[in-house]
Amino acid sequence: MGTKxxxxxxxxxxxxxxxFGFVVICWFGLxxxxxxxxxxxxxxxxxxxxxxxxxxxxxxxxxxxxxVSSLQEELKTMQHEVDINNFxxxxxxxxxxxxxxxxx
Length: 104
Known about the structure:
This protein has helices at 11-43, 47-53, 55-64, 71-81, 96-103. Helix 2 crosses helix 3. Helix content is 66%, strand content 0%. The chain starts with 10 loop residues before the first helix and ends with a helix. With 104 residues, it is mainly α. It is built from five helices and no strands.
């Protein structure tokens, strides 16, 4: 084998050149993702079809949820759903491991 050329031993080639390559590849990938999202938005009419094709739109829709106007209204709805004054006590069945911990 022959000796390496001097440019192959330089710090720029060993450190900076791979970093620039990584940045260029990431930039290209992100531009492709953004371009495809814009094509989906412009090509599809209607919210339901965009919801099918674009998972980000679906996540935004699920995250927003039903809006509650005040805390009092939320408290009233929770009190109607759960009655804390009228419940039946059902003991949780114990396992053998729980019995061992109580004896110690």
